[in-house]
Amino acid sequence: VRGASDSRRRYLDFLGSQIDPVYRPSLRAYERALRSRNALLKSSQPRPREIAAYEQPLIEHGTKLSAMRAELVKRLTPLAAEAHRQISGVEEKVELRFAPGNEEDFARDLRDSHPRELRLRQTVVGPHRDDIELIVQGKKAPQYASEGQQRTVALALKIAQAQLFAQEEGDLPLLLIDDIFGELDLIRRNALLAHLPADAQKLVTATSMQWHEHDLNGPTFELRDRTLLGTKS
Q1: What three-state secondary structure class fits 121?
Q2: What is the C-alpha separation between 148 and 84, in angstroms, rounded?
């Protein structure tokens, strides 16, 4: 939530590559054109005609890529909002907004950015700058949300991702939840456990379970001093 935009793009790229056979080829084609174009911009004497040769594939594949990412965010938004409502245990509204790295007319935006590109020696507009804006209660989560709220948003996005996989494949994926309770208050910890997808197989770790209020569904393993003490259902 707080990190740079590349982590949120990777989140979309992983999801898109799993559910859309066109996504990964479009992403790789865009990245190849971008690398070649940036290499030319970084050369000692950038040649406009050579740089222009990579603009057509950059625009073609970049336009497809941003459209697919925008559609993913549209599909994720209601799933993440519902997961966040359940995990938070309070009526907090979360919104996802796709923030494209270029204007609607990518070709014109690319042309207009040429002077800045030559100064910075890199392509400054395009899907490599796409992002997701995360909004909690009408405010941007990276700047205004608490640690617990930010962690809740991240968990809601992961659960939304799992549910979208389930919509596509018919089965929920295995959920690996490794020690994520440290920055959640007691209400959110118990709400998360209670509202994890019921039909999914889940492996959950925690340093302590003294806070949980309800019986756990499934076996519990306790490890102390590198020794497995036993299990209980």
Answers
A1: coil
A2: 12
pLDDT digits (tens, 9 = 90+) for 11-48: 999 999 999 999 999 999 999 999 999 999 999 888 88
- What is the distance between the alpha carbons of residues 157 and 214, in angstroms, rounded to a whole number? 24
Which pTM does this prediction carry? Answer: 0.87
CA distance 158 to 195: 13
Whole-number Å distance between alpha carbons of 28 and 35: 11
133 strand-pairing partners:
97
Helix (H) or strand (E) holding 222: strand 220-224
Residues of the chain with confidence (pLDDT) below 70? 89, 181-183, 211, 213-215, 226, 228-233
Name the residue among 71, 58, 64, 57 with its Cα closest to residue 12: 71
Residues contacting residue 164 through CB under 8 Å, at least 6 positions apart: 15, 19, 72, 75, 76, 79
